[in-house]
Amino acid sequence: MPFNIGESINSVGDAFLRAPFVEKVARNPIYTSLIITFIIVLMVMFVFRDAETDESLLTLGMRSGFWIFLMLTGALFLHNKVLMTEQFSSEKNAAYDGVFEEYPERSFESGVVPVVIPAASAESGTSLNF
Question: By CB neighbour count within 10 A (0-12 exposed, 13-18 middle, 19+ buried), where does 37 fall?
């Protein structure tokens, strides 16, 4: 059995997301942007620790962290909206698929969908009025 990188990454990700704290952070765009901002600010403070500037390293980290947080929050909210819209449209399409299950072999390129009306019989005592 060959080693599959994709399955390995997915299984590690699933195991990581089972932790209650990690799942809550991953579901909320604000918490996710706070964690990413914290990591980026740590990297900025590490890279610029020897920089000759007029402001302290803490001020530089806080100022860059504020702008990074704003940009990340906007990007994550936009990403969240796109995913929610995609999920809504797939759920809507799944509901429509149930209507057209009777004709899976036909495609309706002409735009006219056949409507099946059950035939009324004299035995059933029903009649169709149009």
Answer: buried
* Residue labelled with tokens 């995609």: 86
In this structure, the dihedral spanned by the alpha carbons of residues 86, 92, 93 and 96, taken in order and rounded to 10 degrees, is 180
CB atoms within 10 A of CB 20: 8
By the 8 A CB rule, do 120 and 127 touch?
yes
- Strands, DSSP E only, in the chain? none
Per-residue pLDDT of the chain (130 residues; tens, 9 = 90+): 577 888 888 888 888 888 888 888 888 888 888 888 999 989 888 888 887 878 888 888 888 889 999 998 888 888 888 888 888 888 877 767 766 665 555 555 666 666 666 665 555 555 555 5
Which one-letter DSSP state was computed for residue 130?
-
